[in-house]
Amino acid sequence: MSLHPKVIDLSLDRMHAILAALGDPQHRLPPVVHVAGTNGKGSTQAMIRAGLEGAGHAVHAYTSPHLARFHERIRVAGNLIAEDDLAAILAECEVANGDEPITYFEITTAAALLAFARSPADFTLLEVGLGGRLDATNVMRPALSVITPVSIDHQQFLGETLEEIAFEKAGIIKPGVPCVVTAQEPDAMDVITRQGARMGAPLLIQNQDWQVWEERGRLVYQDEHGLEDLPMPRLIGAHQVTNAGAALAALRHLRTGDLEAAMTDAHWPARLQRLKSGPLTDAAGPGAEVWLDGGHNAAAGEALAEALTRLPARPLYMICGMLKTKDVRTYLKPFRDVTRELHAISIPGEAATLTAAETEAAASSIGIPARQADSPLDAVRQIAAHHPDARILVCGSLYLAGAVLRENA
């Protein structure tokens, strides 16, 4: 961290330098699927991985951020990277970098690529960390690119408008490399299609080249190769139908994968995940439910509120903690008509957290009854004392989700 630049200037120069010192491992990977987007890229990648592994393929996968443990970011041929291997490969990257400035994400991405290059596998799945065009993962020619829904987030790095943000996401499109694109807002789609034309990259666009929809509790996918009638995704919510479609389009293009396994076997923590054990569920009591979600922008709030309506009816109580860099009011607005009360907390151990008082004030300002709590456990106890049949949702930040998962397996 002492080598971390004082200001994060998105650039690929540092990545190319360290990768060259490591022998350019990015050029020795199995076929790469590169996934960018504002929301849904992690879920989409999880479904692609489940489909490939269901067909017997060994799959490398790189995701970020981690929740409970750093090793979650690097799966080598299907398994989380071993502790000894991670330590050794990080040390090797540190030596290769010397005293040159480098970010945390850049050097850990270099470590992941080196680990992947040294282990046999059939495919490599890379999730963009931030943006796309200048993201540390954007250093090789993939076999396929995927762009999930683009919306407003990370404006301090990617731009204030949807068009500016879409331009950064579309930066993963490579000359001649096909790109699966989900349905987008018109301004974002215009940017993506222009970039595809500029790169000579075939775009496989939702509602033009492929369609996906829910029908009678099943997921229906259709493209030029035919129609598939599949189980609904294991991951809950209408937004996961779109993500599932993108995953299926990717698998169809790769001409491999178990499509049913992609729907039924995908697991992605802190995306409307029901907690089964730990201090929070113990405090909630046997009559309550405790759910966890790490979404933190307006689009994620809308998707989460909709997904909750798909669950059997039960009174909803929220426990929310967010970072100062996020717009808490736009995130919370979709919950006005679905939640009984919000318990505002500060994210444990995070200097950039909004205070409980700030989150409480934001919720109250848009009509959500709110109060403060000292911690997630304190909030659950407050709710359980009066509402033993509650559905409790802990939400607002992946940092909060990570803190919860570290204590509640």
TrEMBL record:
Residues 287-397 form the Mur ligase C-terminal domain. Residues 35-250 form the Mur ligase central domain. Coiled coil: none annotated. GO terms for biological process: folic acid biosynthetic process; tetrahydrofolate biosynthetic process. It is an enzyme of class 6 (ligase). It comes from the Bacteria. Keywords: ATP-binding, Folate biosynthesis, Ligase, Magnesium, Metal-binding, Nucleotide-binding. Pathway: Cofactor biosynthesis; tetrahydrofolate biosynthesis; 7,8-dihydrofolate from 2-amino-4-hydroxy-6-hydroxymethyl-7,8-dihydropteridine diphosphate and 4-aminobenzoate: step 2/2; Cofactor biosynthesis; tetrahydrofolylpolyglutamate biosynthesis. This is Dihydrofolate synthase/folylpolyglutamate synthase. One of its GO terms (molecular function) is ATP binding. Its EC number is 6.3.2.12, 6.3.2.17. Belongs to the folylpolyglutamate synthase family. It comes from Algicella marina. GO terms for cellular component: cytoplasm. It catalyses: 10-formyltetrahydrofolyl-(gamma-L-Glu)(n) + L-glutamate + ATP = 10-formyltetrahydrofolyl-(gamma-L-Glu)(n+1) + ADP + phosphate + H(+); (6S)-5,6,7,8-tetrahydrofolyl-(gamma-L-Glu)(n) + L-glutamate + ATP = (6S)-5,6,7,8-tetrahydrofolyl-(gamma-L-Glu)(n+1) + ADP + phosphate + H(+); (6R)-5,10-methylenetetrahydrofolyl-(gamma-L-Glu)(n) + L-glutamate + ATP = (6R)-5,10-methylenetetrahydrofolyl-(gamma-L-Glu)(n+1) + ADP + phosphate + H(+); 7,8-dihydropteroate + L-glutamate + ATP = 7,8-dihydrofolate + ADP + phosphate + H(+). Functions in two distinct reactions of the de novo folate biosynthetic pathway. Catalyzes the addition of a glutamate residue to dihydropteroate (7,8-dihydropteroate or H2Pte) to form dihydrofolate (7,8-dihydrofolate monoglutamate or H2Pte-Glu). Also catalyzes successive additions of L-glutamate to tetrahydrofolate or 10-formyltetrahydrofolate or 5,10-methylenetetrahydrofolate, leading to folylpolyglutamate derivatives. Its cofactor is Mg(2+). The keyword Nucleotide-binding applies. SUPFAM superfamilies: MurD-like peptide ligases, catalytic domain, MurD-like peptide ligases, peptide-binding domain. InterPro entries: Folylpolyglutamate_synth, Folylpolyglutamate_synth_CS, Mur-like_cat_sf, Mur_ligase_C, Mur_ligase_C_dom_sf, Mur_ligase_cen. Pfam families: Mur_ligase_C, Mur_ligase_M.
